[in-house]
Write a structure and sequence with these properties.
It is a single chain. With 152 residues, this protein is of the alpha+beta class. It is built from six helices and eight strands, in the order ααββαββββββααα. It is globular, with a radius of gyration of 18 Å. It starts with 6 loop residues before the first helix and ends with a helix.
Length: 152
Amino acid sequence: MEFTGSAEALENRFSISVANFDYKAAQKYLRRTFSADRVFRLAYRPLDFRFIYYDSELVFSHREDKMSHLIRGENLALVCASRLSAKGFNHILPADSLVEMKYASHDTNSRVFPALLYGDTVLGAIPQPNLGKAAAAIAGDQENQLNWMELK
């Protein structure tokens, strides 16, 4: 369904700002390129899930370098606040979908740490664990203990 109202009506209907967004150009772009495969679940806030049309041409701050790992196959991620505004560390959440930039904290951006990384090549289609040497040593035998099928 195409929105045909004014910029103000668009802002009111979806509670968004279009000050830096040319929605008429976006509609034209979507008429040419739309694919239902680009609609993804989004963790907006804890226990608040929404949907997003995820296309780097349309999404501001798309963070594709991290988010692509959450849409290319089954994956989990730890999401934490990028900096803390209060004492104590309690701003960390799990995610199994794309996340909104303030998912882990109301006052600062979130950082996303996918459990599995997918490469950019056909050979990279097999996910690799996103662990440093220290984490692998703590886990023991990485080949057996960190098998993705066991993480599900």
